[in-house]
Specification:
The complex is a heterodimer of chains A (99) and B (513).
Chain A: H1 2-7, H2 9-42, H3 44-48, E1 50-52, E2 55-56, H4 58-94
Helix pairs in contact in A: 2-4
Chain B: H1 11-32, H2 38-43, H3 50-61, H4 64-77, H5 79-89, H6 91-106, H7 111-115, H8 121-155, H9 159-207, H10 212-223, H11 237-251, H12 255-260, H13 267-298, H14 301-307, H15 314-363, H16 370-394, H17 401-424, H18 430-450, H19 452-456, H20 472-489, H21 493-508
The chains are: A mainly alpha (99), B mainly alpha (513).
Amino acid sequence: MKEEILNSKEFKNLVKSKNCISLILTVLELIVYFGFILLIAYNRELLNQKIYGPVTVGIPLGIGVIILSWIFTGIYIFWSNKKYDQKISALKEKLGGQL
Amino acid sequence: MTATVLGQPTLTGVFFFLLFISITLYITYRAAKRTRTTTEFYAAGRSITGLQNGLALAGDYMSAASFLGIAGLVSLKGYDGLIYAVGWLVGWPIVMFLIAEPLRNLGKYTFADVVAYRLKRRPIRTAAATGALITVLFYLIAQMVGAGSLIKLMFGLPYELAIIIVGSLMIAYVLFGGMLATTWVQIIKACLLLAGATLLVFLTLYKFGFNYVELFSVVTQQYGEKFIQPGGLVTNPLDAISLGIALMLGTAGLPHILMRFYTVPDAKEARKSVFYATGFIGYFYILTFTIGFGAAALVGKQIITKIDNGGNMAAPLLAEALGGEVFLGFLAAVSFATILAVVAGLTLAGASAVSHDIYAGVVKREKANEKQEVKAAKIATLCLGVLSMILGIVFKGQNVAFMVGLAFAVAASANFPALLMSIFWKKFTTQGAVWSIYTGLVLSVMLIILSPTVWVDIFKNSHPVFPLKNPAIISFFASFAIGIVVSLFTQEKEAEAKYESEKIRSYIGVGAE
């Protein structure tokens, strides 16, 4: 039975799509955070530019990293609830109560 | 503002403090009836919902250090405080994308369960429990010393007495109420902290017509434009990246956080709880950032540093300035609750490493019965609790700030790589895991001792042997590399074969406990 699941197209597809979305979002998060750190280290002029009154680019950017991180987790939840759970139940249905 | 009642036990402070203790002890009493089996003791009977666990995760993670500390840092250093706050948050998405669901599906009570799933259990459990215990102990010492000093600052209690109160309450929660009581202490604390911080921000922004630009105008007029620009925190890019790795990946390797995922019924609730936790924690850091600037503008750096050099009292002082003695008392009690929720979570995680991994797994070779294991867990809780009180008193007046950094470095370098590779890499072997864990552990501890934070600041040498303040950039990658190289040299056919069936459980949750 295990072989049947493992070799099924559905399971392979499920693993692939889950790994793919996890990888993309992880890489995005790494880029956003370490990009922010590297900007602080190497391009302060940009961060110190004023955008509105005394407010500099750096402030919305820092807050933005926090908000964006949360949005990424939201995207993952949205995808999982919509697609991943559906794939799991489809797989379970196909294998007809063997699970 | 001329005088402050900070440092004296105020009527309202004592009232909220006693109210919190009564409620949490009552919860513990109720939880004690439902804390008899191992699943109940370690995992609250897996009865916690995603939203509840999200709040509890936030309560487990948002320490007094991050509330009072970051608000203080912002009030004194401005923008640099925000850089720290961002670092504390960004590990959560990583927890969600890579760890939460497989961890929930594969493990039972500790993250060592997952690493040991298809490898040789005894050496893995020994190594993983060592990593977990070291992380917990350093974190716990830092929390205890912080607790003693903060309570002394806020209520005027003697340091030792404060430690004994915190230690006794924490032991009571965990010993009698297990994970269920710990969870509810964390949920209540998270709600109180979020409510208190929200109110404080509301009162602050009210003074500035709910206009952040106005707030920034006032602080830049007082302290100059440099105040809202990145300053001295990130001068060496390597140091900043190293700290970033420790904060980000350390979050994904903290035993007391990972353990919380076993309290929910399934992987779906586990991932939901990270979404809620990330939202709450992110929101909280944005509040903290505002509180810091509010304190700089309305209380003033001078008064803040006069009370405490590190700025830790910025938030309580702002509360007093805006809401008087009542609000100060409330916030002081909330800070106290914050400390308790974090140390209870840490103690539970440390105790389970001892009882579940070392005692039941290694000593009894997984043959301990429920009763024996719960008893071992309770003895471990008591011992760890007493040990942390003693260490808290021993380290009185010492600079222990580096210990939080060290806890995160160990979590990122010893716990996280082995956990990640065991989930995602088929060819990972027992030897590879053991070497990876010990390499990460030894390197992060050694390099921290040789770094400027300990070698220069504490041992008073003139030059550090290791130039970076945080070792993670070396210890994390070394642990990963050693894990890969050793695994490639020591094939383990059995573990490779088990990977396929592990995959079914990991991805669709079949057979998960």
